[in-house]
Amino acid sequence: MQIPIIASALLCANLVLAAPGTSMRSQRASDRIAERRINRSSNINQRVDNELGVASKNGTSHVEYSSNWAGAVLIGSGYKTVTGTFVVPTPKVPSGGSSSTTYSASAWVGIDGDTCQTAILQTGVDFTIQGSSVTYDAWFEYYPDYAHDFSGIPIKAGDTITVTVTASSTTAGTAVIENVTTGKTVSHSFSGESYALCETNAEWIVEDFESGGSLVSFANFGTVEFTGASVNGGTDTSGATIIDIQQSGKVLTDCSASGSTVTCAYSG
Is the pLDDT of residue 102 over 60? Predict the structure, then answer.
């Protein structure tokens, strides 16, 4: 009769021992989410001079360089809906980087923030690596407010993600992320925002975003290819401004646009 009692006692002891670890992991996750909500934000396109006179490796003639944006921007008027689909990459530590440093990058679509810098309606996915740990966060943002994380949409490398923003007015709209691979979709509605959109920029961007007011260490994101890139239902990116990230005199990306595809590769 003692065996069941002993087994029960051991089980209880194991549960007691396991609980602190589980609690600590939950707390770390909560702390990371809380810190991210306070600190993570996108920014308007921060243009820099093309100090190096660099042309892209694929022959595209670049019009702009930026310290934080890479991708394509259409400049026009009446832009109401922007969408694009990409496969989630596996970020890597850049060459010469440290395994103890956290590196991140973000892929998103948006309206405004380039020639119109009063506001941005945007949504996308961040990819982050520290050592061997890789995490993904889906988010929405109405700049100049900070980014907010979506819940209920797990994301992993290789998932196909469709991101869409729609402006219903200059101060209202929606952000939608669909994980095509899993069938999960999340959305957020904005209304009565204090800063007005111009509806003159449509964007497909890989960004070096900010945390705590400074750019994060930029991850080697491999390649992000937006397919089905469209604005107001049209799928032609002809005439888009191509942007690459240039930091400390070095170009870190190589982007191009053709038809309904915008491609950005890490080249740093």
Answer: yes
Contacts of 14 (CB under 8 A, 6+ apart): none
The Cβ of residue 226 has, within 10 Å, a number of other Cβ atoms equal to: 28
Catalytic annotation, residues: 207
What span, in angstroms and rounded, lies between the C-alpha atoms of 176 and 190? 12
CA distances from 118 to 39, 164, 236, 245 (A): 20, 20, 26, 22
Q: What pTM was estimated for this model as a whole?
A: 0.84
- Contact, 121 vs 202, CB < 8 A? no
Q: Catalogue all structural domains in the chain, each as residue range(s) with its CATH number.
A: 42-266 (2.60.120.700)
Q: Tell me the pLDDT tens digit for each residue of 169-228.
A: 999 999 999 999 999 999 999 999 999 999 999 999 999 999 888 999 999 999 999 999
